[in-house]
Amino acid sequence: MSNKVEILMHPVRMKICQTLMRHKENGLTPLEMVKLIKDVPQATLYRHIQIMADANIIRIIKEKKVKSVSEKYYTLNETEAKLDVEEWKRISNEEKLDYLSYYQLSLMTQYRAYLEKSDENGQEDQATFTVVELNLCEEQFQSFQSELNDLMNKYYNTSSESNGTEASVRTIGITIIPDA
Fold first, then answer.
1. 107 near 172, Cβ under 8 Å?
2. What local confidence, expressed as pLDDT, does residue 170 receive?
3. DSSP label at 169?
4. Residues 64 and 71 sit within 8 Å (Cβ to Cβ)
5. Do the beta carbons of residue 74 and residue 30 sit within 8 Å?
6. What's the distance, CA 80 to chain centroid?
7. d(CA 42, CA 95)
């Protein structure tokens, strides 16, 4: 793979990133990932894990000896799994649209699975969707974006357990589009 954008914008690798985000404390073995990412064949998943490991997008956090095999536990290398402003500026508009399309498709697939599971379990739909247009000067926008990042990081870095009960995962997808 030639660059980080190309590596990150693949649908299977996006699924791997999301799965590892949900298991950041202990990481996952490739076999555990296969069980969680059911719609991707094992050989395909292993190939994408290797591509991501070679690019340092994911890393090994521990190894366990199981019989004669050493199981590797992977976690997301969060710094490397993000595109910085300069990397984003270097890619073409077509690549940006592709990346956004994969991102939106990933959210839509996840939402479909959520709705199907809600129907099966008779759960009330707790998903929300909001579109807001903000009229902010550049300084206000930078402040907003910084506060939003701080808020997301605060809750992302919180333990997966709260008050002794298992916490539910909620995916938050934010797209900021400047006025054309």
1. no
2. 82
3. P
4. yes
5. yes
6. 12
7. 28
